[in-house]
Amino acid sequence: MEDESITVRTVLSEYESKRLLAHYDIPITREVLVEDRHRLMEAVEAIGYPVVLKGCSPNIAHKTETGLVHLDLKNEDQVLAAYDEITKNIIETENTDATVLVQEMVSGKRELVAGLTRDPQFGPCVMFGLGGIFTEVLNDVVFRVAPLEKSDALEMTREIKGHRILDAIRGMAAVDMDRLGDILMAIGRIGMENEKIIEIDINPLIISAGKPVAVDALMVLESPGD
Questions:
Q1: Is 116 left (phi over 0), alpha (psi -120 to 50) or beta?
Q2: Per-residue model confidence as pLDDT tens digits over 167-217
Q3: What domains does the chain contain, in order, with CATH numbers?
Q4: DSSP string, the chain
Q5: What is the mean pLDDT of residues 139-143?
Q6: pLDDT in tens, 85-131
Q7: Angle between the 150-159 and 177-193 helix axes, to the nearest 10 degrees?
Q8: In this structure, what are the phi and psi dihedrals at residue 199, rounded to the nearest 5 degrees?
Q9: Beta bridge partners of 169
């Protein structure tokens, strides 16, 4: 008889998702997963201020809306207060032990989104567009069927309406297009080589000193029986 108490996960946590991105040479934030205050301060010391603290669990999809993200923490008092609030919220809402992601604070005014969706007809399709709060507001995104060549990836970046954000603008350096193209190609490879992954969402992909960095990520897996 099948054990109904076994829960099959269909979502990877941010930490797990970004480990897979890093395996495909996609730049991610420096970060450490911690479960207590002692390990917390060790991680902060290793990463250096300012830091970001996030609640981390496969069940947490919208961390900001639930008070599980604290940005730009500059000292120990701020870090400990944020940690206590996050762990309290996780225990109350998830009824489980709290794990917290300690992350470097990546600065950049330009936010992009990149990812993947698995279309029933065409298979894995790479997505690219404007990220952050603009993703849902402007819906300025484009898609390409994987696998991608570098020319495909670069064409995608010029097809969004807001493509000028990638150029040198208002004192900010132009985006490293070669690196951005590599990221989109790598996302396509993830989709081609991991059939159980049906969705990837990297949002935001922040441009810091011209370089794209995956600051947040989520991966959705195929449900059993699909």
A1: beta
A2: 999 889 999 999 999 999 999 999 999 999 999 999 999 999 999 999 999
A3: 30-104 (3.30.1490.20), 110-221 (3.30.470.20)
A4: ---TTPPPP-EE-HHHHHHHHHHTT--B--EEEESSHHHHHHHHHHH-SSEEEEE--TT-S-TTTTT-EEEEE-SHHHHHHHHHHHHHHHHHHH-S---EEEEE----SEEEEEEEEEETTTEEEEEEEE-TTHHHHH--EEEEESS--HHHHHHHHHHSTTGGGGS-BTTBPPP-HHHHHHHHHHHHHHHHH-TTEEEEEEEEEEEETTEEEE--EEEEEPPTT-
A5: 95
A6: 999 988 887 656 679 999 999 999 999 999 999 999 999 999 999 99
A7: 110
A8: -155, 140
A9: 172
Distance CA 193, CA 24 (A): 11
pTM of the shown model: 0.91
Instruction: For 124-163, give one letter per residue: b (16+ CB within 10 A) or e.
Output: bbbbbbbbbebbeeeebbbbbebebeeebbbebbeebeee
Distance CA 219, CA 45 (A): 29
Nearest to 186 by CA among 28, 23, 31: 23
Q: In one letter, which amino acid is 216?
A: D
